[in-house]
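Methods — Computational structure assignment.
A single polypeptide chain was analysed. Its primary sequence is given first, followed by the predicted tertiary structure written as structure tokens.
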Amino acid sequence: MISKFKKNLARFLSPKNVLIIGGDDAAIAVQQCRAFGFGGSIWTISRSREHLGDITCFKDVSELPAAPDAVFLGVSSSATAEVIKELKKIDAAGVVCFAAGYAEVGSAGRKKQDELVALAGDMILLGPNCYGLINASTGLALWPYLHGCQRIDSGVAIISQSGMLATSITMNIRSLPISHVISIGNQAVLGFEDLIDHLLENSKVNAFGLYIEGLRDLDRFFSVAKRAATLGKPIVAIKAGSSRTGANVTAQHTGFTQSSNKDLEKMFKQSGVILVDTPNKLLTTLNFAVNTKPLQGTKMAVFTCSGGDAAIVADCGERFGIEFTQPSSSVAKELKKILPEIAHVSNPLDCTTQLWGTPKMVQAFQIMLKDDYDVALFVQDWPKPEIEFDGGTDYQEAAEFARAAKSRGVPAVVCSSMSENMDIKTQQFMTSVGAIPMQGFEEALYAISQHSLCGSAD
């Protein structure tokens, strides 16, 4: 039998109606739901305003036409407990508790937080000290700030103890579809393990990106993570607080003092979780993970038209455990026939600009990939969007590269040397021809190396 808590969680994450309570922050949440196209009922409550956004306010919870599925509670911490009590009486499914001033401020705040937990019972409590919830497939945006999500059918679920960091992640200009954004703050009731466990059953979620300051239930989290790996829904996580200063910051931010250590890192690895240390690596690793199956190894074929790119990729890749297997004698012999005299047969292969845009470049892809590789990478940098440029030849080369890689059954990665050197239009083209667009050598090579090591938990 499904518990009341789980039923409430399902209602809360995919609500048919929402209630928004409060002042200025609540008004923004109304605006965000409207702008994102939420199709369900939106009700508002304010004791000092006639309207929140364009919606006429009720004065009290008792006036509502039905029990709300999801509530954004944007009132002060001193008023929060009483409203939680009233919402519980009418069988509200779950509440976003925006207010701060709980476990993160010390023992007195922790006591207040424990009181909220007791009042909530089997009602979902997200937070406190959190931004809220976005569901991009339904247009739900219980979020008191601008966000960069777009309506999509499926993608990555971002779960973060930092609301502002989650907001920043939604503003990225990388080709990563985001299905959910959930800010969980202090995790008083609802933790990472609860949300992942529930969303694993959601066909619209294909991976998870986490910002973690602390975990409520280590055993359950790692059990759920192993299940995610088995289901082929990778988890990529930033675990903050590994330094002394960082641990102090996380304690003041969400009340967690669970610093990273070797044992914890080992548990992440054993459960199939990929650890990263920056938002760029988080986004890039997720992008690669959701676009290909786990690699069988780290043998990579690399094509460039620059000796500098080739050297940097080699140095960076070897640092992360990438294998640059050199061309076999038969492949080397074929490559010598088409490469200009100034080129050298090697991997990474600098085809030189003499081959750029010629049929021989396509031949180089086809010949080199006759050898056995786990992944292929083609370096392409693009000018700023405001610079007039006919990229037809470059697009065609990328498409031919993707075709050659597909014929050999290996993922095709088109990577720019720097993150800003591939615009959104170009990313979309790469995706359309079956290539994985990636931005920045270090992040891309790290992501590829990590994905080759995951795929199944120990």
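Note: The CA atoms of residues 73 and 334 lie 68 Å apart.
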